[in-house]
Amino acid sequence: MRGLTPPVLPFRAMSATSEAPAAYRNTADDPGAIGLIREAIADVRSRRRLVRYLVAADMHKRGADTLLGNLWWVIDPLLQMVVYVVLVTLISRGQNIEHYPLFIFAAILPWKWFSASVTDATTSVTSQDRLIKQIQFPKIVLPVAATSAGVVGFAFGLIPLAAIILISLGSFSPFLLFLPVIAAVQFLFTLAFALFMAAGNVFFRDLGNVSRHLLRLWFYLSPALYSLAVLDEVRLLDQFPILRVLLQLNPFAILFEAYRAVIWGVPGDISPRLPDLSGLGLLAVGSLVFLAVATVVFKRLEPKFAKVL
């Protein structure tokens, strides 16, 4: 029996016309912000099979390119956890935090999801320049697919998280049911940020290189290796009020504290509890506004992609 050759490019396996046609507009048309958002939603819905295919293709590519494949989603955050635990325990106050591996893994895992999604989404449009010039399709599906693929990787990372919880705490808390709620808020923010980066990288190619350094700095300025309670103990926030303002504006200060609340607890009381629902609610609303603005910006720039690429 003659074997089937797997497709090299996703669009060969699923043609651009295999689903409901998307609406395309002339650059002179201006449907307004609401119209652009509706158009973007229609683009993604009409190409939802294509988004699923791109997500599957992305996960398959990652698995085929390396020996361990998608297991790196399990191994990489564990290796990072070991490095940070050793360093912080030796040179800082990590030894004073009970179950510190669980404390730090609760931040590393969602951050890996965010950074991997943003990195992939940043080049999602520019890496398909030849297809964009040859085939007419809604470009917004590319960063959406890259961000959605990160969700699958995050799910892989829940496996070692479950193991560390059992080793550290001995049982699972019912507050873990809030994990999908926190992850949904993070997804909204991640998708909005990814749309901005994908569109911006078309016109400013250095954005991909700059983003890697900015993401690293962002991680260290977020309460990932430490808790906000530690900063209060050393009165660092009182000495430098600007740090308090930056932390209040940092979405991952809210997200990390929320993840830790349901997974680990709070400093001085290691028992899972409800996250700060008011903070999460404000972040969710802010992320929706951010996503609406990012969608409008992406759709306004989309007609120019083929010319620039």
Describe this structure in words.
There is one protein chain. This protein is mainly α. The chain has one domain. The protein is built from 15 helices and no strands. It is globular and about 60 Å long. The N and C termini lie far apart (42 Å). The relative contact order is 0.13. The N terminus is likely disordered.
Any key phrases for this structure?
309 residues; mainly alpha; 70% helix; globular; disordered N terminus
Q: Note the overall shape.
A: globular
Q: From the alpha carbons, calculate the radius of gyration and give it in angstroms.
A: 21 Å
Main beta sheet: none
SSE string, helices as H and strands as E: HHHHHHHHHHHHHHH
Q: What proportion of the residues is helical, as a percent range?
A: 55-70%
Beta percentage is under 5%
| End-to-end gap | 42 Å
Oligomer: single chain
Low-confidence stretches: 1-24
Provide the structure class.
mainly alpha
Tally the helices: what do you get? 15
Rounded mean pLDDT is 81
| Structure summary, number of beta strands | 0
Domains, number: 1
Topology:
Elements: H1 10-13, H2 32-46, H3 48-65, H4 72-91, H5 100-122, H6 129-134, H7 141-169, H8 179-203, H9 207-221, H10 228-233, H11 236-239, H12 241-249, H13 251-263, H14 277-301, H15 305-308
Helix pairs in contact: 2-14, 3-7, 4-5, 4-7, 5-7, 5-8, 5-9, 5-13, 7-8, 8-13, 8-14, 13-14
Question: What's the short version?
Answer:
By secondary structure, this protein is an all-alpha fold. Helix content is 70%, strand content 0%. The protein has 15 helices and no strands.
